[in-house]
Amino acid sequence: MANTLPKVPIVIVGMGWVGGIIAAELTKAGHNVVGLERGKSRSTQDYYHVHDELRYASRYELMQDLSKETVTFRNTEKVRALPMRSYGSFLLGDGLGGAGVHWNGQYYRFLPYDFEIHSKTIERYGKNKIPKEMSIRDWGITYDELESYFVKYEQMSGISGPSELPDNIGKMSIPYATPPMKMSPGMKLFTDASSKLGYHPYIIPSANLSQDYTNPDGIERASCQYCGYCERFGCEYGAKADPVVTVLPVAQKSGKFELRTHANVTGILHDGKKATGVKYVNTLTGQESVQPADIVILAGYVFTNVRLLLLSKLGKPYDPTTDTGAVGRNYAYQVNGASSVAVYEDREFNLAMGAGALGSSLDDFNGDNFDHSDLKFIHGANIRFTQTGLRPIQYQPVLAGTPKWGKDFKQATIHNANRILAVSGQGASMPNRYHYLDLDPEYKDSLGLPLIRMTFDFLDQDRELVKFIAQKTKEIADQMGATKTEIHDTIRQYNIVPYQSTHNTGGTIMGSDPNTSVVNNYLQMWDAENVFICGASNFCHNSGYNPTATVGALAYRAAEGIEKYMKKGGSLV
User: Fold this and answer.
1) Adjacent-strand bridge partners of 429
2) Which InterPro entries match (predicted)?
């Protein structure tokens, strides 16, 4: 029998970046907040022995247990979806801080074009440029309206970056909090080659601190050691910004924040118009509890936010057949696969050292920064060279034609370990009418609840983008003075393996039309005014960038909206 708890003003579901930011902002403003995290608690002490590649990178110590809850996947509605039983395409974080603990720290604001992609594409190329089944739309907010919230995230997390950025990126009102990271020899080769070709490279803005930093909340953190253990690992120095070392301490010190770990939320309680609270299960004891609340905030990962709405029958599920409904609409991923490698037989680089966001990139072929008139795709990719720290177990570099096992394979990986520099493109993913999330009718989690089902595949738009961007990466690699270069310019059918990107987006998209979006531009739900949903699930498409900067900015926007709602109630737009 469920245990009904005393009512609270605000309950937050998920304590990663979004939950941490909103909790910090609301408690600083004097509000009492309860935060529910289904995983365990975490502090920097848990990272002290984190340089264990087998445990964390290969065996996924920080990730969700897929034997208890996973996702099912299919390319189209014509095939049966099957569960992801072992990690491949993306990684689902678990525990306090969520994916904000195991990210790399690469920080990019989405482009102004991204937020008005539908209208700007038609304005330049006409409506026929957009394929019939490509469901791009304006986000209901502009870059300029969101700019001040980017600043808040950057100052809180201590983003390290150049004092000046190229003109083809959105304007900044305030410089990054700290200077850029160091320039490695590989970065210099990429930068010099790109500049000679007339492009506009810059050092990647980084959530790995370039120097010691104290943020506006008084949180002190040490600078990056360039150890190369960022992605899939926590940072024992606190140099990589994550919720555990930035926003959550602020909320916890306020005296107005109650954190409950091992609290797996299974539903949102509501009367059809407003939420009345949430129900959750203690993952250690199995005890079910009901937490009444005045305001419910969904701050989970993409799949979690969408699944909770569908399980709770809150909002109208998306139906691709009729193109109606909103919950689950506009799922998008990331289009990787365009890359070239520069092979150096006459020199070696220290590629074991690095940082998650150490690198240089350019945006000459991102967004609408180049003419698409004669191209069979829209948007583009951020092109980059990164030196994230190549660890010995997972890094096995070989060139085309090398045997996949045996003596020759081993010799090639050893020889190539410090001789290959990769130039890659991270491409935007456009939504499609038949790409969406819903509940699987067959497979269930360990509690007997339906799993979330993902329907997605790469389309001609993606293949054309990869082919085009790959040629640009090879152009740069050829200019970098290598002995030889090798290009990768094709992608085929999407599969749940191998690892590609954890950048899943969409499903609770924002917009100005309640019929086709789930939330308004304050991330307030159209169908329940006291429910706020925030995260990459709000994205109407995915850009050529990592999503965290935009997730963070939207979280600050949502916190402001929640405060406004507490004062006056009703719809905020």
Assistant:
1) 542
2) FAD/NAD-bd_sf, GMC_OxRtase_C
Catalytic residue IDs: 503
Residue at token pair 């770990």: 261
373's tokens: 């008139």
Residue found by looking up tokens 């937050």 in the block: 12
414: tokens are: 């050893």
pLDDT of res. 1: 79
The whole-number pLDDT of residue 48 equals 87
How many degrees, rounded to 5, is the angle at CA 562 between CA 560 and CA 568? 105
Average pLDDT over residues 427-453: 98
The closest alpha carbon to 301, from 554, 18, 10, 11, belongs to: 18
Res. 50: pLDDT tops 90:
no
Residue with tokens 């600078």: 223
- DSSP state for residue 228 in the 8-state scheme: S
pLDDT in tens, 166-212: 999 999 999 999 999 999 999 999 999 999 999 999 999 999 999 99
Tell me the pLDDT tens digit for each residue of 489-515: 999 999 999 999 999 999 999 999 999
Q: How far is CA 512 from CA 132, 140, 145, 526, in A?
A: 21, 5, 15, 10
Element (H, E) at 24: helix 17-28
Q: How far apart are CA 173 and CA 163, in angstroms?
A: 11
The pair of three-digit structure tokens given for residue 54, joined into one six-digit string = 């087998």
Q: Checking DSSP bridges between strand 82-83 and strand 263-270, what pairing results, if any?
A: unpaired
CA distance 506 to 511: 12
CA distance 179 to 231: 22
d(CA 533, CA 508): 8
Fold of 3-568: FAD/NAD(P)-binding domain (3.50.50)
Q: What is the DSSP letter of 109?
A: P
- CA separation for the pair 554, 300 (Å, rounded): 13
Domain layout of the chain by residue ranges: 3-568
Q: Number of helices (H) and strands (E), helices first, in the chain?
A: 12, 22
Is pLDDT at 446 greater than 90 in this prediction?
A: yes
Angle at 8 between CA 6 and CA 13, to 5 degrees: 110
CA dihedral 281, 287, 293, 297 (to 10 degrees): -10
